[in-house]
Write a structure and sequence with these properties.
Aminopeptidase; globular; Alpha-Beta Plaits; eight-stranded mixed β-sheet; four-stranded antiparallel β-sheet; alpha/beta
């Protein structure tokens, strides 16, 4: 039996167990940095299989690294397991929270970490049987939804000696994710003023809320003078407590995004100047609470093609009539235009034309060849940080119906079902086979590294985090 057959047979044989673990995590959703159940469940399984577990990567109690093997190459798998607040949902095609206001796996991370665990387990079996040298690692990465986990882990150097990293994400189709993403900074600005009676002695007050509002005015004027592709979003998280009290404290929270890290830094610097100006205008003081920052994703075409080929090789996805009917019922709950938008995105992401009739298929079991000219994703991911440290590739697999809105109760209802499980199994096998090729084909790994160096063009990864920052 070949190493490839060992991997596929092992992961297929673990179908029920992996499904059970993913459902256990789905049943107990935990938001960013509180994933004690999920991280322990995965770490315990890996420890029982002989992996060495190291906790606390990046200063986060729910982060860990599981390692097996010795020497080079070193291949890493990026696992995630955090849920989203407010998305509690039963396995139903109508909105049915299990816990009002509770969290739910609205991005499929119950499947994410489990699939990567299955990959390294299968790869270990093949390495043992065939005496394949090298080291494999599973990275238990918390707090992806707040873009914290991998950034803080990267700051602490846990990815520095990797030869390559492999990742995936649940989605609506089986395709390699070979486009870039937006770099980002997340930060809060705290304004501190002087309280007073707004009716009796307002002249003695200094409004922190005025500082927030003037800063936002300045940021709105800034929008005219930044690159078109940049995005700035904000919420006022604290604006005072009563109209007749001049607020002594107020806070605004910003995300600033742009296609490249240096563009984010430039815009961020100008926003800091605006904050200072707002404080001067209002007679208040201010401080900056930097939450996190991340890099744009650096694609690797060699890794992408490898992952595509491995996905084709290992794909035996086939949905039951019941799963198809369930998916169609979920689609009936989508807002108008969601299905058309997702189908249009897929047409742009595919290398070869897709028939319009495909829009009528709620679940796509086939593997789509990715385009050579992908668009940049409008969101951000701290997989981008890893991709600037080591060559990185990732796939998406069909875990929910076409058109499903992101971060939604419909995703929760899909990723806890057999639909999500099928996508998880395909991802697990594909990533394991890709890891095998990187371990056993030196010329392939050399090509991956050569492309990585060329695309970096001499630009090194420097953490966006200020000295002493702690994950929150």
């Amino acid at each position: 039996m070949s190493a490839r057959d060992i991997i596929l047979n092992h992961i297929n044989g673990e179908d029920e167990k992996l499904g059970y673990i993913a459902k256990e995590i789905w049943d107990r959703p935990e938001i960013a940095l509180t994933e004690s159940f999920a991280s322990k469940l995965l770490a315990d399984e890996l420890a029982a299989a002989g992996f060495k577990i190291t906790w606390g990567a990046g200063g986060m109690p729910t982060a860990f690294v599981a390692e097996w093997g010795s020497g080079s190459p070193i291949i890493g798998y990026l696992g995630e397991y955090d849920a989203l607040p407010g998305l509690s949902q039963d396995l139903a095609t109508a909105k049915t929270p299990l816990v009002d206001g509770g969290p739910g796996h609205g991005c499929g991370h119950n499947l994410f970490g489990t699939a990567c665990m299955g990959s390294v387990m299968g790869l270990k079996k093949a390495m043992e049987a065939e005496n394949i040298p090298g080291t494999i690692r599973f990275y238990g990465c918390p707090a992806e939804e707040t873009l914290v986990g991998k950034t803080y882990m990267a700051r602490d150097g846990v990815f520095d000696d990797l030869d390559a990293a492999i990742s995936w994400h649940p989605g609506s189709t089986n395709i390699v994710w070979n486009g870039s993403s937006l770099a980002m900074n997340s930060f809060k600005v705290n304004f501190h003023g002087v309280a007073s009676h707004a009716g009796v002695d307002p002249e003695n007050g200094r409004s922190a809320l005025d500082g927030v509002m003037l800063m936002d005015v300045g940021v709105n004027y800034l929008r005219e003078h930044i690159i078109q592709e940049a995005r700035i979003h904000s919420v006022v998280t604290h604006g005072g407590q009563a109209p007749n009290v001049v607020p002594a404290y107020a806070q605004v929270w910003y995300f600033v995004r742009a296609p490249h890290r240096h563009q984010v830094e430039e815009i961020y610097g100008r926003m800091l100047d605006i904050a200072q100006g707002a404080a001067l205008m209002t007679g208040t003081s201010h401080d900056i609470e930097f939450i996190t920052g991340c890099y744009d994703l650096l694609p690797n075409d060699t890794m992408s093609q490898l992952l595509h080929d491995c996905m084709v090789e290992s794909n035996n996805m086939s949905f039951t009539p019941q799963e198809i009917a369930y998916a169609k019922e979920l689609q009936s709950s989508f807002a108008p235009g969601m299905l058309d938008a997702d189908f249009g995105r897929m047409k742009r992401s595919a290398k070869f034309p897709l028939e319009d009739s495909r829009k009528d298929d709620p679940l796509w079991p086939d593997v789509i060849q990715h385009t050579d000219n992908p668009a940049t994703m409008g969101g951000s991911t701290e997989v981008g940080d890893v991709s600037w440290i080591t060559p990185t590739g990732q796939v998406t697999t069909t875990c929910w119906p076409l058109g499903t809105p992101g971060h939604s109760w419909q995703i929760v209802a899909s990723v806890g079902s057999g639909i999500g499980k099928q996508g998880m199994m395909l991802a697990s096998k594909s990533m394991a086979l890709a890891g095998l090729d990187l371990l056993t084909k030196p010329d392939l790994l050399d090509q991956v590294k050569k492309e990585f160096v060329e695309k970096k063009a001499g630009r090194d990864y420097v953490t966006p985090l200020p000295e002493g920052a702690k994950a929150v």
